[in-house]
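[Archive record]
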Amino acid sequence: MTDPRPRRLFRIPFRKGGLRHEVDEELRFHIETRVGQLLDEGLSEEEARAEARRRFGDVERIGEEVEELTRRRERAMRSSDHWDDIGRNLAFAFRQLVRNRVFSVVSVLTVALAIAATTSIYSVVDGILLRPLPYPESDELVMVWADYTRRDVVLPDKRREWLSWPNFSDFRDQVGAVEAVSAFMGWGPTLTGSDTNAERLNGGIFSHGMFSDVLGVEPALGRGFLPGEDVPDGPALVLLGHGFWQRAFGGDPAILDQTILLNDQPHTVIGVMPAGFEPPAFLGTDAWTLMQFDDSNGGGRGSAFLRTVGRLRDGASLDLARAQGGQLGSRLEQEFPEANTDVGYNVYPLHFDMVQQASSALWILLGAVGLVLLIACVNVANLLLARGASRHGELAVRVALGASKGRVLAQLMTESLLLAFIGGALGFGLSFVGVEALLALAPDQTPLIEQVGVDGRIMGFAAAVTLAAGVFFGILPALRASGAKPASALKDAGRSGHGRRSGRLRSGLVVGQVALALMLLVGAGLLLRSFQKLQQVDLGFEPEGVLSMQMQLPPVRFPDATTRLAFFEQLEERLQAIPGVESVGSITNLPLAGQDGDTNFWVEGAAPPPQGLEPSVWLRRVTPDYFDAMGLELVGGRAFLPSDDLDATRVIVVNETLERDYFDGQAIGRRLNVNNPADPVWREVVGVVRDIKNFGIRAESRNAMYLPFAQAPTTFLFTTIRTSVEPASLMNPVRAAVADIDAGIAVANMRTMDELVSASLAADRFTASLLGGFALVALLLAVVGLYGVVSYSVTTRLPEMGVRIALGAGTDGIRRLILRWALSLASAGIAVGAIGALGVTRLMEGLLFDVPTTDVATFGVVSLIMALAAVTASLVPAVRATRVDPVQVLKSE
């Protein structure tokens, strides 16, 4: 019998209405019906309900699932609506850009050029300053230098002087914060014995552990140097650079354990380093050999010729390494006062040490290109404001038809972002060309330049900058345009009221553009003046018409003074016979090359200096005709003669600085000693020559001495050739002359002295050229922005101009009115920019030479240029304003 009472499987509260409520009611009906049927069939109520559950399921669970499905459907619908909105906005924005082609092209190109310039400069900054060094755990690598800041000597950088072998050994053995440390020096061996002419290689000599322990890099082929191979008279071993291995030996793996001749000495090839491997300090990638020094042959503590790289121990800090180095330096001062008085250790992060000279210029260039990007954004913002003013009525109608302010704002921001990303994509493509151009312009010795390139990391930066730029130049015009009120807009339809209301904002943006452009122009002007002064520096010699080259004689075949003198005498004689050659001379190190070669000296009859504080002197060996070949003027006494040989009286030539500082201007006939004071060799001063620039054009001249090569012959010399023809035209005849004398001697670094001078100015030229280019772009953008504002203002003020002309105003008065207003904007920008430049240019102080950061002439000239540019930009709108037909204008109103 059917139970007439209503039965419910579950009693749960349901929402009224909704899908879940409907499903619950339907399920409840079927469940109750089935329970009744089962009860009629004789099942107990418990059995009937259990059977109903198995058949129809758990109503609560099903209800929850239905509710979750409902929520998902609603979210999907909202998401679909959202993407539909974005799609519609993008489609409409694209149609707007196509419809306004001139506006779109100008805006896209402006953004593209700014993004390209910014991305290109950032690529260089990222590759050199921001990326880690290409070694494992490179943040643990440090550079160790001798610190001479407490010593009263003239040095290029007293914080970063080279170490002697004993001082390096003590640091290696006694500074526990540094786990591994290795010394290195340059090496330029001559490869002989191949089918080609002798070749000068670039490489280095390292103490044990440089590759494996310090840099953490193993050979790609073969093995590295092993402990016990770094002893004096140890095996002659060599590691090859990957590029040299490919070039010289065709990448043949059979080169391992083979013998090659370097400086006429057999060296066994034990390995090949990985492709792209470069050790610190740009020693090249051709070949490396092992330093085999100890206390018996490493020189004394006063013989500093080593640079040093180390790796911090796990858990050790840079401060701990510096503290331990300071303690060691203090102990060595006490133990070895003759060489270590006022000498300590400096420890720097390797990356910082490598890039510190380039970092200031690169950060300034990145800041400058950032200003260009900002000016470009302001320019596009002004264009958008003008376009927004023309669309004011359209947007007001949309609002009147029901579009929300947020909807309008979203549409306008979509248009701005579409502009930005089209320009950004084009700019990113152009950045590949920009980076290649920067690499071509960069000085040869720019550190870590091989790490510069455009990759995913740079793409991410370009995308982020593009997004930021789109938001920056789009948000203000969008906010202003989206706030259109239907009543006022429709009332002002066809009138210029809204344009006048937006005039202040656009004028303010132009003032900002002018100010930013002026700051860049001032910076560029200061650098250009500095570069001009560097070019006018008196070098002390005449580089025009001089060809130079370097040669190194293998000690095996030229072991003594006789053989060395014979070779260079024969060389100069053969070179002198080449048509167009006027004079030939040689020196151990060329000026401006920045190569050191200091020694201590003592003046005869003078009070001996305190031990360890002896004056130092820049010492060079020269052949008799070197002064003539280099155009180095003799200001007193005589030059060296061929008779100043080993059998003659020891003589010396000094420069003006040394004569002034140590001989009161009367050096001729006085004597000096540059040997051990315990065993002096007195040399008579026979001549005085002009000071020259050696450590770069910026560096002050230092004490300098010249010895006759015949009295102190070495195995290497730079030969200088003064010509009456174009020096580069003699390169092949000079190479042929050397080969005729000895085919086993390689000619290296052949270049004109003009090229050497130019190379010494490369960093200044690079910075000044780029900053000057950015400043010109900024000036152009500012002029375009000013022109746009003035032109738009003239358009909106045409009724006013028509009334003025109708009332008798002359054309000159109208032009003056427009020009005066444009100049007021420019003057405000110039004033703001000048104040900003006073602060910003202080950051450039280290880049300037003989030019103050507040140089009045530069500020004045730049301000005048900006004012003239403002007048030029305003002329066309001013003339257009005078050609208004009053009748037509008043009719249109």
Remarks:
- The longest strand covers residues 178-187.
- The first helix runs from residue 18 to 40.
- Residues 180 and 629 are 47 Å apart (CA to CA).
